[in-house]
Amino acid sequence: MSRGLALAVFFLWSSVAGGEVRIEPALAELPANHLKFYLHFPGPMERGEVFRYLRLVEIDGDGREFQEVPEPFREVELWDETFTRLTLWFHPGRQKPGVNLNVEIGPILEEGKSYRLEISGKWRDESGKAIGEIVAHEFVAGPPDETQPDPSKWKITTKGGFVRVMTDGPLDPESLRKRVVVRRVGEEENLASTIESDSEGMAIRFDSPLNPGRYRLFVDPQLEDLAGNSVARPFNVDLTKTSETRGTELLGAELSFEVPSSDSE
After folding, report:
1. Cβ–Cβ contacts within 10 Å for residue 187, how many?
2. What is the pTM of this model?
3. What SS3 class is residue 88?
4. Domain stop point among 142, 164, 184
5. Residue 76, in any domain of the structure
6. Which of helix, strand or coil describes residue 201?
7. How far apart are CA 53 and CA 14, in angstroms?
8. 210: buried, middle or exposed (CB in 10 Å: 19+, 13-18, 0-12)?
9. Domain-located, residue 3
10. How far apart are CA 204 and CA 214, in angstroms?
11. Sign, Cα dihedral of 7, 134, 119, 18
């Protein structure tokens, strides 16, 4: 997938318990070796048999279902502590080239084909209220992403009270929220912020306006892209090779930027 490419989004949502059901990432193109989705719900959901409510289907150019993709998910329920966010993994054994499941069943996504991830409207929250409508996200599988994120290639701009970071490719949204922090130069406290990701990078909005001055953006080496490549190491590592030939392992990064007086007004 071309890094930094702006893409259109097809995204359906539904309301349950007075809120919205969302799927992340909501990009129109995902790498063929994409790993994870995040399903967000407005309240705690029923648990125990969630995979009966989830499907991945291959579709044609008009959105018509062509066939259901067999056994695409790692069937382990990975909830946050509030039971409102489910981390939905594609099975890593099918996404890693040369691994048994990848060879025996084949990859989940094939470059150039179109797919739809569906959440059944029959799924209920803890109070017994069903979502009511299918929630879905359609996307095209782009080229596999085998490249580690490289913060040295990122560009930071400030405007209108928020920071815009143009990265070298789309990043995992939850990883971003956990692995990127901003501090004022000379201070050790992380600034409270909200980070939103898109196909070109991230937008960081701060709870309090930034005063003029210099700031540091810290990138944890475990920050991942959509294919599981981290700043520290690639996702596909051949463990039979020596450390010199396995791929580049990098430390985290620190980037500096300045908020001029005009931006803080």
Report:
1. 11
2. 0.85
3. strand
4. 142
5. yes
6. strand
7. 15
8. buried
9. no
10. 16
11. positive
Pull the structure tokens for residue 24: 């992340």
How many Cα atoms within 13 Å fall on the side-chain side of residue 84? 11
Which of residues 109, 142, 175 is at a domain's end? 142
66 and 27 share a domain?
A: yes
Helices (H), 56-172: 92-95, 100-104
Per-residue pLDDT of the chain (265 residues; tens, 9 = 90+): 444 333 333 344 444 445 799 999 999 999 999 999 999 999 999 999 999 999 999 999 888 999 999 999 999 999 999 999 999 999 887 766 666 666 567 789 999 999 999 999 999 999 999 999 999 999 999 999 999 999 999 999 998 778 999 999 999 999 999 999 999 999 999 999 999 999 999 999 999 999 999 999 999 999 999 999 999 999 876 444 444 444 555 568 999 999 998 765 5
Q: Are strands 85-89 and 22-24 parallel, antiparallel or unpaired?
A: unpaired
At 144, list the tokens.
């596999």
- Alpha carbon 214 to its chain's center: 29
